[in-house]
Amino acid sequence: MKRRLLLLLPLVGFLVLGAFLYMGLSINPFDRDSALMAREFPAFELTTLEDPERVVDASLLEGEVTLVNVWGEWCPTCKQEMPQLLDLAERGVRLVGVDYKDTREKGREFLAEFGNPFEVNIFDPEGSLGFDLGVYGAPETFLVDREGIIRYHHTGYIRPEDVRETILPEVERWR
Amino acid sequence: MALITRLLLCLLLWLPALGQAAVEVREFDDPVTEQRYRDLTATLRCPKCENQAIGDSDSPIAGDMRERVYLQLQDGRSDKEILDFMVNRFGDYVLYNPRLEGRTLLLWGLPAGLVLLGAVVVVFMVRVRRRTSARDLSAEERARLDALIKRERTE
Q1: What residues does the Thioredoxin domain cover (chain A) (predicted)?
Q2: Which CATH class is domain B24-97?
Q3: Chain A contacts of B88, Cβ < 8 Å?
Q4: Chain A residue with Cα closest to B62
Q5: Poorest-pLDDT segment among A105-109, A132-136, B29-33, B150-154
């Protein structure tokens, strides 16, 4: 009898493997963590969208918990997520934008049309800061703590419920 | 008329060349660097598109990554430095060949482990079977066997 049960072993193995692979089907490949988590915000030296004369660097993000949002005029999802960002700004969260692979003109038009929740916008026409942040598509959002360390990362669209359920609690956590 | 058809055919032959225009033409000083570029862009996975190497992808980020690989090769960086540079930004996800380290031990070890387990099972089964077949004959069986052999001989 014991030996008979042993014959079921391959079937059990197959079922375990099947369950494992089935679970894999429902994993969202874009849910993976940023490689920069718990690391310093990458160094950069870029002008602002507002003022081509003003050069800013990573010290811009120190001293206060800041939400850095990477956007671009060419990115439709960024337009959809602006109301959520405006809501966050209204709740007192400090936002800094990165205008990614854009022209100054178009970036300004975008803000004029969809509102500007950002204290300042870093102008990144070549996408060099975006590259160092590991951004592979806009929008992407990073939470940077007071010391300039990246603490949270959100890839893609921020839904209104994401503001309440994840982003605001994360901001509170690092304040 | 025949001339026109021929000219049109010639034009058609140009189509594949036009299609390739989307991927940049790179110039290399030596064939070794060119081969390294090809290998690196084939082994780095595009972070935006799930199952394409950056060398195959039209995604803007894949283009940016190819550019960085090219520039760093020109700078004389080693393959490992270039891969580290990418992993630092985009994570292990971009490596088609995951590195052998603590976290990936199971990934690399499981296939070898399973083969080993299979070998152990086969050896075990062969031994069990050999033992049952090598069992001594009972007195009755031996008598029957002797009788059979004797009959064979006398015939």
Answers
A1: 35-172
A2: mainly alpha
A3: 35
A4: A136
A5: B150-154
User: For residue A129, what is the nearest residue in chain B, using CA coordinates?
Assistant: B89
Closest residue, chain B, to A42 (C-alpha): B89
ipTM strictly over 0.95? no
**What sign results for the dihedral spanned by CA atoms B60, B64, B69, B74?**
positive
What amino acid occupies position A41? F
DSSP state at residue A41 = P
Domains and CATH numbers, chain A: 30-174 (3.40.30.10)
Residues of chain B with CATH 1.10.8.640: 24-97
Question: Which of A33, A101, A134 minimises the CB distance to B89?
Answer: A134
* Interface probe, candidates B48, B90, B117, chain A, greatest A C-beta count within 10 A: B90
Q: How many CB atoms lie within 10 A of CB B58?
A: 11
Closest CA to B96 of B53, B39, B48: B53
Predicted pLDDT at B86: 96
